[in-house]
Specification:
With 535 residues, this protein is an alpha/beta fold. The strands form five sheets. Strands 12-13-14-11-10-16-17 form a seven-stranded mixed sheet, with helices on both faces. The protein has 19 helices and 20 strands. Strand 1 and strand 2 form a beta hairpin. The N and C termini lie far apart (52 Å). Helix 2 packs parallel to helix 8, helix 3 crosses helix 7 and helix 5 packs parallel to helix 6. The longest helix is centred in the first third of the chain and has 26 residues.
């Protein structure tokens, strides 16, 4: 499993104001595949800046070792009956819910988010795990399809595991975008090598530890650590399928590398998501939904809303409800449910958020609320912000900010709203608020995003794990959730049996005829099958 790294000791290191129990941290870090005496990366909590742990860094050779170990374990796992595989996942589901308080603390410490947002990860992981544990057998069942000659050609399509699936996960959802992505791959009979972000390793390691406790065979899930440019690249070079959640720029690099090996990928990338409040929406109801859609996870969520489009007939009423709600959001560092909005996760994210807001204000934008770096709360806290009159060329108007900043735009009508929503290189999520669901569905059919939520910001689509979700345009390719999320980690094998061959009924008898004759007969057969409405 690798060599445990040293942990910052709160009793001997003056920098440590509060950290996790050192013994527990050492146990989790033992799951990282790293050479003895490996260099370490010091992870600090964004809530206060206090150090949490020194995480061992894997080398390229460690990645090769991890993949080799996983590949060996996968051969036996693929032969394990699917009912047994799924029973392990169901035990894991129960452990996640029973022990959630442990990982809620970890997620808050590593990521800085509010506890309610951390709970979203626990709930999502449970939803994903239950879904695939209950549905994997159906998704993987051999499918019989119509053959060439009705009654004589039998065709069955099988799903085979790809082998070793690599998962490169980000820091914003360190549990469900790492271990949650491993679940469908494991259900399908694959092994998994995880490369979590260095900032949030412990949350992912906690999930791996629980999988082992649930009965997952040793070696089947491997964890490597290190910079994406080096360790992530080494992973792409060796796995059989790659899952990435990250920026569009990183996605393009990974896609090019994987394409060179003809290895498939599942990429969920950037978003610049819009929410439209139609003129028939209840302003108070919409305002409540907008707050959740925009500021959950401190806005560091790929499907969160950064562009708020208000029909001009209700814009003032919605803002009158919305602004007080945003101002009332509580910021805090406590490891409990007392805060509504947490910290940004890194100094780089704070710099990006500050740059986008300052750039917009310099261009003439008005700050309706927020726009303040709240150092009184913590080093990386930024007040939830609404901006109006933002110039079209402003950074925040065209680029993903990935923070608690929202651009408010007034639109004339539905057509104008659709035009603005689609005027983006991204296409991940959109939200429509209207009393008329039929109207919402019509608008959704015109919007160029991989998912559309009607009268909800993102949770309705994201939490419906039976339905595939993902991006279009520069927001990625491939899908997570649903059968597609599992099928992506498999390859299909078509087995066709021609019956009657040894009784003179095979295709050889047809081909034995003169070409003019068998093609005439075959043409007649094709016409007959159409007349019989055969597929």
């Amino acid at each position: 499993m690798g060599n445990p790294a040293d942990v910052i000791d709160p009793e001997t290191d003056p920098r440590a104001t509060w950290v996790l129990e050192p013994t527990e941290v050492r146990r989790l870090l033992a799951h990282v595949v790293a050479s003895p005496g490996a260099a370490t990366n010091l992870a600090c909590t964004p809530l206060t800046g206090a150090p949490v742990a020194a995480v061992p860094l894997s080398t390229v050779a460690d990645v090769a070792s991890a993949v080799a170990t996983a590949r060996l374990a996968q051969r036996r796992w693929a032969r394990t009956p699917i009912a047994e595989r799924c029973s392990i996942l169901l035990r894991f589901h129960d452990l996640v819910l029973d022990r959630q308080s442990e990982v809620l603390d970890l997620i808050q410490l590593e990521n800085g988010k509010a506890r309610a947002s951390a709970y979203e990860e626990v709930a999502d992981l449970a939803l994903i795990t239950r879904h695939y544990a209950r549905r994997a057998a159906r998704y993987l069942a051999p499918q019989r399809v119509a053959g060439l000659v009705p009654g004589l050609t039998g065709v069955t399509v099988h799903r085979r595991p790809r082998g070793v699936v690599g998962v490169i996960s980000p820091w914003n959802y360190p549990l469900n975008l790492s271990v949650g992505e491993a679940v469908p791959a494991l259900a399908a009979g694959n092994a998994v090598v995880l490369r979590p972000d260095q900032q949030t390793m412990l949350s992912a390691l906690w999930g791996v530890d629980l999988l082992l406790e649930a009965g997952l065979p040793a070696g089947l899930v491997q964890v490597v650590s290190g910079p994406g440019s080096e360790i992530g690249g080494a992973l792409v070079d060796q796995v059989d399928h790659l899952v990435l959640t990250g920026s569009t720029a990183t996605g393009r690099v990974v896609a090019r590398a994987a394409a060179g090996r003809l290895v498939p990928t599942s990429l969920e990338l950037g978003g610049h998501n819009a929410l439209y409040v139609a003129d028939d929406a209840d302003p108070a109801v919409a305002a409540e939904g907008v707050v959740r859609a925009c500021f959950a996870n401190t806005g560091q969520l790929c499907v969160s809303i950064e562009r708020l489009l208000l029909h001009e007939a209700v814009a003032d009423a919605v803002l009158a409800e919305l602004i007080p709600r945003v101002r009332a959001l509580r910021l805090g560092t406590a490891l409990d449910y007392s805060a509504d909005v947490g910290s940004l996760t890194s100094a780089a994210q704070l710099a990006r958020v500050t740059e986008h807001v300052d750039d917009a204000v310099r261009g003439g934008a008005r700050v309706l609320t927020g726009g303040v770096h709240r150092v009184d709360v913590g080093p990386l806290f930024y007040e939830p912000t609404l901006l109006a009159d933002v110039p079209e060329q402003a950074l925040v108007a065209t680029l993903e900010t990935f923070g608690p900043v929202v651009v408010v735009t007034r639109v004339r009508d539905d057509d104008h709203a659709v035009e603005v929503v689609n005027a983006s290189e991204y296409g991940l999520n959109a939200s429509i608020w209207t009393r008329d669901v039929a109207r919402g569905r019509r608008l959704a059919s015109r919007i160029e995003t991989g998912m559309v939520n009607i009268n909800e910001g993102y949770a309705a689509a994201w939490g419906s794990t039976g339905a595939a979700i993902g991006g279009v345009k520069s927001s990625g390719s491939g899908r997570r959730h649903g059968p597609e999320g599992l099928w992506a980690t498999t390859w299909s094998q078509t087995v066709a049996v021609q019956r009657g061959t040894h009784r003179g009924l095979g295709l050889g008898r047809l081909y034995a005829l003169p070409a003019e004759r068998w093609t005439e007969l075959f043409t007649a057969g094709l016409r007959l099958m159409k007349a019989l409405r055969l597929p």
